[in-house]
Specification:
It is a single chain. 73% of the residues lie in helices and 0% in strands. With 182 residues, it is mostly helical. The protein has two domains: 72 residues, no CATH class; 107 residues. The termini are far apart.
Length: 182
């Protein structure tokens, strides 16, 4: 769909992008790379990776927000991005039409955990098990694929509830971390 864009859409995109040119920081690199990869995978007709990276791109927009609020709390945005990326892989694995091995989901979460541990060394509160127990259980033990595509709505509703809990715990641990000076 992204390659069916007309001149009007391109003009609107350029106009919308103008204010961002004055606020470009290093944080813009993450969404820009994810957007480029998303469009590349869609162009190459790899819908699965396009979907995964497109979903990660949307969550990476929190990095752009960091630029506008002059916030140095990058760690929660990294948590959110890695959680969403692994969640998108998990959903793609669960789809019966995809030939994605569950070890990809498991490896992506283990790699994410390693990155989070390295980044969280100075903020041990963010490593609080509450924020990592549920996603670790879900991503390390993803279970069987869905029996049919009709079950995707149920998976989505359960995922939404889990996402809300994860965000609430992430906000809580971030606030506690700032309050306690960790």
């Amino acid at each position: 769909m992204s390659f069916r864009i007309g001149a009007r859409e391109i003009l609107l995109s350029v106009l919308i992008a103008i204010p961002y040119l004055f606020a470009i920081t290093i944080y813009f690199l993450v969404p820009l790379v994810l957007l480029a990869l998303t469009l590349t995978f869609y162009w190459k007709k790899n819908l699965m990776l396009g979907n995964v990276l497109g979903t990660a791109f949307i969550s990476s927009l929190s990095f752009v927000w960091l630029s506008f609020v002059n916030n140095t709390a990058v760690l929660p945005s990294v948590y959110w991005l890695l959680y969403i990326l692994c969640g998108a892989l998990y959903v793609e694995y669960k789809l019966p039409i995809r030939k994605l091995d569950k070890r990809v989901v498991q490896f992506s979460w283990l790699l994410s955990l390693a990155i989070l541990v390295l980044l969280s060394v100075k903020s041990l509160l963010l490593l609080m098990p509450l924020t990592l127990i549920e996603p670790s259980t879900r991503f390390l033990f993803p279970g069987k694929k869905l029996p049919s595509m009709r079950d995707i709505a149920k998976l989505g509703r359960r995922g939404l509830k889990r996402d809300i809990i994860f965000v609430a715990l992430l906000i809580l641990t971030t606030i506690l971390s700032k309050f306690l000076g960790l």
